[in-house]
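> forwarded from #structure-qc
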């Protein structure tokens, strides 16, 4: 009997049994006892077989199972060179041990060989990818991840965003990595950059809101300033109109001439003042118009 193989089949049958639904109550106990009896018979016979084995066999089996466990720990190691040396050493130790009886030997050998085959397939892929520079690319992309992770999320976030864009450009220029690391290394880099841009957008949005508030205040001040300036121009124009009136006829001629000269100077001064204020008003209107567009 191939004890190992048959034991696995029984375990599979037991797993299937648990997944099958209920049976009629009057049949339930009968069919369960039938199934349980078959399983008990096998496992009892297997235990009896090993109990009756010679001590040498049991020691030999114990040694080979210990080697199998070591091989199973090494078969998925990422340190290929070290694991390869250790597995070769285990193979040498395996060859020095005496054979086990018949089917028992075949089952244990199959367990050990399976670990060797799994590792060798992985080793082949590793060497092939190493030759193509995939692992070198992986190292480069890991460094890019580290650089991205080191970028600050406070302070000058715009600098961090600019540097993240540069890192993204360098990432695209770096070649492929081993396929089993492709998703994990990309997720690491992408999530880090995405976090930087999210924080940056949030900060810029906050700054924009604050800027709009400040500009609204500035706009309000300018509008008030415009009203005051327009009122000042209106008063100046009324004053100009008053001083431009006719001369009093009861005054002496020399006094009228003197008043005319003084009035002319005053009119010129007021006119210049009005023109200066109108120019300021024009510039103020333009500034108000530009600010109004920005704060919308």
């Amino acid at each position: 009997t191939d004890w190992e193989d048959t034991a696995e089949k029984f375990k599979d049958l037991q797993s299937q049994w648990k997944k099958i639904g209920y049976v009629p109550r009057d049949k339930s106990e009968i069919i369960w006892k039938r199934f349980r009896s078959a399983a008990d018979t096998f496992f009892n016979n297997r235990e009896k077989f090993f109990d009756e084995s010679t001590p040498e066999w049991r020691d030999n089996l114990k040694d080979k199972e210990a080697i199998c466990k070591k091989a199973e720990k090494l078969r998925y190691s990422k340190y290929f060179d070290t694991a390869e040396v250790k597995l070769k050493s285990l193979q040498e130790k395996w060859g020095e041990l005496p054979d086990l009886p018949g089917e028992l030997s075949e089952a244990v050998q199959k367990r050990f060989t399976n670990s060797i085959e799994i590792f060798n397939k992985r080793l082949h892929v590793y060497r092939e990818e190493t030759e193509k520079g995939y692992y070198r690319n992986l190292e480069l992309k890991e460094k890019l991840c580290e650089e991205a992770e080191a970028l600050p999320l406070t302070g000058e976030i715009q600098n961090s965003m600019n540097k993240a864009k540069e890192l993204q450009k360098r990432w695209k220029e770096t070649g492929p990595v081993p396929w089993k690391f492709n998703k994990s290394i990309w997720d690491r880099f992408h999530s880090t950059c995405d976090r930087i841009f999210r924080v940056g957008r949030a900060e810029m949005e906050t700054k924009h809101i604050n800027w709009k508030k400040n500009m609204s205040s500035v706009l309000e001040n300018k509008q008030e300033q415009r009203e005051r300036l327009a009122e000042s121009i209106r008063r100046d124009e009324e004053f100009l109109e008053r001083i431009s009136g006719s001369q009093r006829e009861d005054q002496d001629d020399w006094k009228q001439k003197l008043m005319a000269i003084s009035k002319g100077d005053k009119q010129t001064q007021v006119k210049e003042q009005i023109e200066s204020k109108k120019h300021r008003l024009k510039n103020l209107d333009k500034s108000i118009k530009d600010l109004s567009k920005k704060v919308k």
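QC bot note: The chain is about 85% helix and 0% strand. The radius of gyration is 47 Å.
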